[in-house]
Design brief:
By secondary structure, the protein is mainly β. Helices cover about 5% and strands about 40% of the residues. It has 2 domains: about 70 residues, RimM (Elongation Factor Tu (Ef-tu), domain 3), CATH 2.40.30; about 70 residues, SH3 type barrels (Roll). A hairpin with a 2-residue loop joins strand 9 and strand 10.
Length: about 160
C-alpha cells in the first residue's frame, strides 16, 4: 500500500505496534501519529500520519522509530529492556568488578551481554577488553535495576584473559 513503512521490530511482541498511537522518528524525535498497522508472521507494517506516498515512505528508510518510556509495554518478572541494562556495573559472585555492560547482542537462543573491561587484570595479566556473558539463569545471578548492578557466575574459561 502507498506510504506504508516496513518496520524491523526490536521487541519480543510485534503485536505491540497495533496498540501504539504515536512514534518518534530519528535523532530529532519528530512525533508522528500511527494511522494503521499490520502484523503478519512477525513482520510489521506501519502507516504514519503525513506519510502518504511511496516516496515519503522511502525517504524514511533506515530511520529509527522510538516510543516514550512511559508508553512501553510493562516488563514481566525477570524481563528487562536493553536500555535498562546498558551502563550497568557487572560483578562476579565474589564481588570483583568485571566491567560495564556496554551492549546486548541478540543472536538467537539467548542474549549475550558485552562487558567492557578497562584496566581489569586476569591472573596477573591484562584481560581481554570485552567479556561476553551469556544471558542465562546459570550465569546471570542477579540484576539490580535500582542499584545499576549485575552479578554473574563466570563459567570455567569464561573470564580468562
Amino acid at each position: 500500500m502507498v506510504g506504508e513503512l516496513r518496520v524491523e521490530p526490536v521487541t519480543d511482541d510485534p503485536h505491540r505496534f497495533e496498540r501504539l498511537e504515536r512514534v518518534f522518528l530519528g535523532a530529532k524525535l519528530a512525533p508522528r501519529g500511527v494511522s494503521g498497522c499490520g502484523v503478519y508472521r512477525g513482520r510489521v507494517t506501519l502507516m504514519l500520519e503525513g506519510v502518504a506516498t511511496k516516496e515519503a515512505a522511502a525517504a524514511l528508510l533506515g530511520t529509527p522509530l522510538y516510543v516514550l518510556n512511559e508508553e512501553r509495554e510493562p516488563r514481566g518478572p525477570g524481563e528487562y529492556y536493553i536500555d535498562d541494562l546498558v551502563g550497568m556495573d557487572v560483578f562476579d559472585e565474589e564481588g570483583r568488578h568485571l566491567g560495564v555492560l556496554a551492549e546486548v547482542w541478540q543472536p538467537g537462543a539467548n542474549d549475550v551481554y558485552v562487558v567492557r573491561r578497562e584496566g581489569v587484570e586476569a591472573k596477573g595479566r591484562q584481560a581481554k577488553e570485552e567479556l561476553l556473558i551469556p544471558a542465562v539463569r546459570d550465569v546471570v545471578l542477579k540484576i539490580d535495576l535500582d542499584g545499576r548492578r549485575m552479578t554473574v557466575r563466570l563459567l570455567p574459561g569464561l573470564g580468562e584473559g
